[in-house]
Amino acid sequence: MRNDKNMFYISEIFKSIEGEGIRTGLPVVFVRFGGCNLSCSYCDTGYAQTVKDSKLMSRKQILLDILSHNCNRVTFTGGEPLSAGKDFIKWFLRNLHGMEVNIETNGSILIPNWLNDQYRVIITMDYKCFSSGMSHKMVVENLKKLKTKDVLKFVVGDDKDLEQVVKLVIEHEPQCNIYLSPVFGKMDLQKLAEFVVKHDKLNLRLGLQIHKFVWDPNMRGV
Protein backbone atom coordinates (compact mmCIF):
# COMPACT_ATOMS: atom_id res chain seq x y z
CA MET A 1 0.00 0.00 0.00
CA ARG A 2 1.23 3.50 -0.71
CA ASN A 3 1.07 6.68 1.31
CA ASP A 4 1.57 8.92 -1.74
CA LYS A 5 3.22 8.52 -5.14
CA ASN A 6 6.70 8.63 -3.61
CA MET A 7 6.42 6.82 -0.27
CA PHE A 8 5.17 3.29 0.45
CA TYR A 9 4.31 1.31 3.55
CA ILE A 10 6.68 -1.66 3.77
CA SER A 11 6.23 -4.34 6.41
CA GLU A 12 9.56 -6.09 5.82
CA ILE A 13 12.31 -6.81 3.29
CA PHE A 14 14.35 -9.99 3.67
CA LYS A 15 16.14 -12.73 1.75
CA SER A 16 15.08 -16.35 2.07
CA ILE A 17 13.90 -19.26 -0.06
CA GLU A 18 10.66 -19.04 -1.99
CA GLY A 19 8.41 -21.22 0.14
CA GLU A 20 5.72 -22.00 -2.42
CA GLY A 21 4.78 -21.69 -6.07
CA ILE A 22 6.78 -22.13 -9.24
CA ARG A 23 10.05 -20.89 -7.68
CA THR A 24 9.84 -23.07 -4.57
CA GLY A 25 13.24 -23.53 -2.95
CA LEU A 26 15.04 -20.78 -4.86
CA PRO A 27 16.72 -17.84 -3.08
CA VAL A 28 14.55 -14.71 -3.30
CA VAL A 29 14.39 -11.21 -1.84
CA PHE A 30 10.93 -10.55 -0.42
CA VAL A 31 9.36 -7.10 -0.29
CA ARG A 32 6.24 -7.27 1.84
CA PHE A 33 3.85 -4.34 1.63
CA GLY A 34 1.88 -3.26 4.67
CA GLY A 35 -1.87 -2.94 4.34
CA CYS A 36 -4.31 -5.43 2.84
CA ASN A 37 -7.83 -4.92 1.50
CA LEU A 38 -8.85 -8.42 2.63
CA SER A 39 -9.08 -10.19 5.98
CA CYS A 40 -8.79 -13.93 5.43
CA SER A 41 -9.72 -16.31 8.22
CA TYR A 42 -6.40 -18.17 7.95
CA CYS A 43 -4.10 -15.21 7.28
CA ASP A 44 -0.54 -16.05 8.34
CA THR A 45 0.80 -12.52 7.92
CA GLY A 46 -1.61 -10.67 10.16
CA TYR A 47 1.12 -8.18 11.04
CA ALA A 48 0.91 -6.89 7.45
CA GLN A 49 -2.87 -6.54 7.29
CA THR A 50 -2.56 -2.93 8.46
CA VAL A 51 0.24 -0.39 8.14
CA LYS A 52 0.60 -0.03 11.91
CA ASP A 53 3.86 -2.01 12.07
CA SER A 54 5.15 -0.91 8.66
CA LYS A 55 7.61 1.82 7.81
CA LEU A 56 7.44 4.42 5.07
CA MET A 57 10.09 3.94 2.40
CA SER A 58 10.81 5.66 -0.88
CA ARG A 59 11.24 3.72 -4.10
CA LYS A 60 14.98 4.37 -3.97
CA GLN A 61 15.26 3.10 -0.39
CA ILE A 62 13.38 -0.07 -1.32
CA LEU A 63 15.54 -0.59 -4.41
CA LEU A 64 18.80 -0.17 -2.48
CA ASP A 65 17.61 -2.64 0.14
CA ILE A 66 16.73 -5.18 -2.55
CA LEU A 67 20.07 -4.81 -4.31
CA SER A 68 22.01 -5.10 -1.05
CA HIS A 69 21.00 -8.78 -0.84
CA ASN A 70 22.82 -9.61 -4.09
CA CYS A 71 20.09 -11.85 -5.51
CA ASN A 72 18.61 -12.01 -9.01
CA ARG A 73 15.03 -12.75 -7.92
CA VAL A 74 12.55 -10.59 -6.05
CA THR A 75 9.00 -11.24 -4.84
CA PHE A 76 6.62 -8.38 -4.12
CA THR A 77 4.01 -9.63 -1.68
CA GLY A 78 1.71 -8.30 0.98
CA GLY A 79 -0.46 -6.97 2.03
CA GLU A 80 -1.33 -6.32 -1.60
CA PRO A 81 1.44 -5.14 -3.98
CA LEU A 82 -0.94 -4.12 -6.78
CA SER A 83 -2.20 -1.41 -4.43
CA ALA A 84 1.13 0.35 -4.96
CA GLY A 85 0.03 1.30 -8.49
CA LYS A 86 1.43 0.74 -11.97
CA ASP A 87 4.01 3.52 -11.71
CA PHE A 88 5.69 1.75 -8.81
CA ILE A 89 5.89 -1.59 -10.63
CA LYS A 90 7.03 -0.08 -13.92
CA TRP A 91 9.73 1.94 -12.15
CA PHE A 92 11.11 -1.18 -10.52
CA LEU A 93 11.08 -3.14 -13.75
CA ARG A 94 13.25 -0.40 -15.24
CA ASN A 95 15.64 -0.33 -12.30
CA LEU A 96 16.02 -3.94 -11.21
CA HIS A 97 18.58 -4.66 -13.94
CA GLY A 98 17.16 -7.89 -15.32
CA MET A 99 15.99 -9.42 -12.02
CA GLU A 100 13.12 -11.89 -12.27
CA VAL A 101 10.07 -10.42 -10.54
CA ASN A 102 7.24 -12.33 -8.88
CA ILE A 103 4.15 -10.35 -7.92
CA GLU A 104 1.91 -12.10 -5.41
CA THR A 105 -1.61 -10.71 -5.56
CA ASN A 106 -4.63 -11.70 -3.49
CA GLY A 107 -7.06 -11.99 -6.42
CA SER A 108 -9.28 -9.06 -5.48
CA ILE A 109 -7.76 -6.56 -7.93
CA LEU A 110 -8.04 -6.81 -11.71
CA ILE A 111 -4.67 -7.72 -13.21
CA PRO A 112 -3.84 -5.00 -15.77
CA ASN A 113 -3.14 -6.08 -19.33
CA TRP A 114 0.23 -4.32 -19.46
CA LEU A 115 1.45 -6.43 -16.55
CA ASN A 116 0.50 -9.64 -18.36
CA ASP A 117 2.86 -8.69 -21.18
CA GLN A 118 5.97 -8.32 -19.01
CA TYR A 119 8.13 -11.36 -19.79
CA ARG A 120 10.24 -10.84 -16.64
CA VAL A 121 7.20 -10.86 -14.37
CA ILE A 122 5.56 -13.92 -12.82
CA ILE A 123 2.09 -13.25 -11.49
CA THR A 124 1.14 -15.47 -8.56
CA MET A 125 -2.53 -15.09 -7.77
CA ASP A 126 -4.05 -16.49 -4.60
CA TYR A 127 -7.71 -17.28 -5.26
CA LYS A 128 -9.55 -17.11 -1.95
CA CYS A 129 -11.83 -20.11 -1.43
CA PHE A 130 -14.96 -20.21 0.70
CA SER A 131 -13.23 -20.98 4.01
CA SER A 132 -11.22 -17.75 3.77
CA GLY A 133 -14.40 -15.69 4.11
CA MET A 134 -13.19 -13.56 1.21
CA SER A 135 -14.27 -15.58 -1.82
CA HIS A 136 -16.92 -12.98 -2.71
CA LYS A 137 -14.11 -10.44 -3.20
CA MET A 138 -12.41 -12.37 -6.00
CA VAL A 139 -12.16 -10.96 -9.53
CA VAL A 140 -13.03 -14.08 -11.52
CA GLU A 141 -11.91 -12.42 -14.76
CA ASN A 142 -8.33 -12.77 -13.53
CA LEU A 143 -8.50 -16.53 -14.12
CA LYS A 144 -8.42 -15.84 -17.87
CA LYS A 145 -5.55 -13.37 -17.59
CA LEU A 146 -2.95 -15.71 -16.14
CA LYS A 147 -0.47 -17.12 -18.67
CA THR A 148 1.67 -20.26 -18.80
CA LYS A 149 4.46 -18.58 -16.81
CA ASP A 150 2.07 -17.55 -14.04
CA VAL A 151 0.68 -19.27 -10.95
CA LEU A 152 -2.83 -19.73 -9.63
CA LYS A 153 -2.89 -20.86 -6.02
CA PHE A 154 -5.93 -22.22 -4.21
CA VAL A 155 -5.54 -22.34 -0.42
CA VAL A 156 -8.01 -24.95 0.79
CA GLY A 157 -9.32 -25.57 4.28
CA ASP A 158 -12.14 -28.08 3.82
CA ASP A 159 -14.09 -30.20 1.35
CA LYS A 160 -16.25 -27.29 0.20
CA ASP A 161 -13.09 -25.50 -0.88
CA LEU A 162 -12.03 -28.55 -2.89
CA GLU A 163 -15.41 -28.64 -4.62
CA GLN A 164 -15.05 -24.96 -5.44
CA VAL A 165 -11.61 -25.53 -6.98
CA VAL A 166 -12.91 -28.26 -9.28
CA LYS A 167 -15.83 -26.11 -10.41
CA LEU A 168 -13.66 -23.04 -11.11
CA VAL A 169 -10.96 -24.92 -13.00
CA ILE A 170 -13.46 -26.80 -15.18
CA GLU A 171 -15.46 -23.66 -15.91
CA HIS A 172 -12.60 -21.23 -16.61
CA GLU A 173 -9.77 -23.55 -17.80
CA PRO A 174 -6.90 -21.37 -16.55
CA GLN A 175 -3.78 -21.67 -18.73
CA CYS A 176 -1.23 -21.38 -15.93
CA ASN A 177 0.42 -23.46 -13.21
CA ILE A 178 -2.27 -24.41 -10.69
CA TYR A 179 -1.35 -25.21 -7.10
CA LEU A 180 -3.49 -26.70 -4.37
CA SER A 181 -2.17 -25.58 -1.00
CA PRO A 182 -3.57 -26.56 2.41
CA VAL A 183 -4.29 -24.15 5.22
CA PHE A 184 -1.21 -24.98 7.27
CA GLY A 185 -1.83 -27.69 9.84
CA LYS A 186 -5.53 -27.99 9.04
CA MET A 187 -5.93 -30.45 6.16
CA ASP A 188 -4.63 -33.99 5.77
CA LEU A 189 -1.76 -33.92 3.27
CA GLN A 190 -2.29 -37.49 2.11
CA LYS A 191 -5.93 -36.68 1.35
CA LEU A 192 -4.87 -33.67 -0.72
CA ALA A 193 -2.26 -35.68 -2.60
CA GLU A 194 -4.88 -38.32 -3.43
CA PHE A 195 -7.28 -35.57 -4.51
CA VAL A 196 -4.67 -34.25 -6.96
CA VAL A 197 -4.07 -37.74 -8.34
CA LYS A 198 -7.81 -38.39 -8.70
CA HIS A 199 -8.33 -35.13 -10.58
CA ASP A 200 -5.28 -35.49 -12.84
CA LYS A 201 -7.13 -34.03 -15.85
CA LEU A 202 -7.25 -30.67 -14.03
CA ASN A 203 -3.43 -30.45 -13.94
CA LEU A 204 -3.36 -29.51 -10.27
CA ARG A 205 -0.15 -29.59 -8.28
CA LEU A 206 0.11 -30.12 -4.54
CA GLY A 207 1.93 -27.14 -3.07
CA LEU A 208 3.28 -26.95 0.48
CA GLN A 209 4.71 -23.92 2.26
CA ILE A 210 8.15 -25.47 2.73
CA HIS A 211 9.50 -22.56 4.77
CA LYS A 212 7.06 -23.58 7.51
CA PHE A 213 8.65 -27.01 7.62
CA VAL A 214 12.19 -25.62 7.67
CA TRP A 215 11.59 -22.90 10.27
CA ASP A 216 9.03 -22.23 12.98
CA PRO A 217 5.68 -21.71 11.17
CA ASN A 218 5.16 -18.42 13.01
CA MET A 219 8.67 -17.07 12.37
CA ARG A 220 8.95 -13.84 10.41
CA GLY A 221 11.63 -12.98 7.88
CA VAL A 222 11.89 -16.47 6.40
How much strand content do the residues show?
25-35%
Number of beta-strand segments: 9
Order of helices and strands: EEEHEHEHEHEHEHEH
What gap, in angstroms, lies between the N and C termini? 21 Å
Number of helices: 7
Tell me the Rg in angstroms: 17 Å
Which blocks of ≥5 consecutive residues have pLDDT under 50?
Answer: none
Short description:
The chain has helices spanning 59-68, 86-95, 113-116, 142-145, 159-172, 189-198, 211-214; strands at 7-17, 27-33, 55-58, 73-77, 100-105, 121-128, 151-156, 177-182, 204-206. A nine-stranded mixed β-sheet has the order 3-1-2-4-5-6-7-8-9. With 222 residues, it is α/β, with parallel strands linked by helices.
Can you describe this structure?
It is built from seven helices and nine strands; from the N terminus they run E-E-E-H-E-H-E-H-E-H-E-H-E-H-E-H. With 222 residues, it is an alpha/beta fold. The radius of gyration is 17 Å and the shape is globular.
